[in-house]
Write a structure and sequence with these properties.
By secondary structure, the protein is an alpha+beta fold. It has helices spanning 2-7, 19-74, and strands at 81-85, 88-95, 98-104, 109-116, 121-129. The protein has one domain. A five-stranded antiparallel beta sheet has the order 1-2-3-4-5. The longest helix is centred in the middle third of the chain and has 56 residues, at 19-74. The radius of gyration is 32 Å and the shape is rod-shaped.
C-alpha cells in the first residue's frame, strides 16, 4: 500500500499531507460565495429602498399640488397661471375636461388631472416624471 501512495502525484486530492488543507479550502470558498451572495442581496435591498423613498417624495409633492388645485377649484378659481403651495411652484392650464399641471423645482413632473365639470370632481390623474432610478 505504501508503494501505491508513493506513486501518487505530490498534490493529489487524497494525499495525506494536503487532505486537511483541501477541506479547509473548500469550506473557505463556500463561505466566500455565501458572503458575496448576502452582500449582493443587501446592496439590491438598499437600492430598492432608495428608489421607494424617492417615489414617496414625488407622491407627497403630487398630493400637495393636487390638493391645492382641488381647493382652488372648490372656491371657483379655475384660472390658469403659476401657483405655489408652500415651497412647491406649479403652472396650471386647462383644456376641456383636462387640467395640465407642470410642477417646477426639485421634483419636476407633469400632472394631467381628469376633471368632471358637472360634478366638480377630479376623477383621475396621470403623472410623468423624468427620473432616473438608482442602479
Amino acid at each position: 500500500m505504501k508503494e501505491m501512495v508513493s506513486h501518487f502525484p505530490k498534490y493529489f486530492y487524497m494525499n495525506r499531507k494536503g487532505f486537511a488543507e483541501s477541506y479547509f479550502m473548500i469550506i473557505l470558498l463556500y463561505l466566500a460565495a455565501l458572503s458575496a451572495i448576502i452582500m449582493g442581496n443587501d446592496q439590491k435591498k438598499v437600492k430598492t429602498w432608495m428608489n421607494i423613498r424617492k417615489a414617496n417624495e414625488y407622491l407627497i409633492v403630487e398630493n400637495r399640488v393636487i390638493q391645492d388645485y382641488r381647493c382652488r377649484l372648490a372656491q371657483g378659481d379655475c384660472s390658469e397661471g403659476v401657483f405655489s403651495t408652500g415651497d412647491i411652484h406649479y403652472e396650471a392650464s386647462m383644456n376641456g375636461n383636462r387640467i395640465y399641471l407642470s410642477v417646477k423645482g426639485s421634483y419636476e413632473e407633469e400632472l394631467i388631472l381628469y376633471y368632471d365639470e358637472e360634478s366638480g370632481f377630479i376623477m383621475d390623474y396621470d403623472a410623468s416624471r423624468n427620473v432616473k432610478a438608482e442602479e
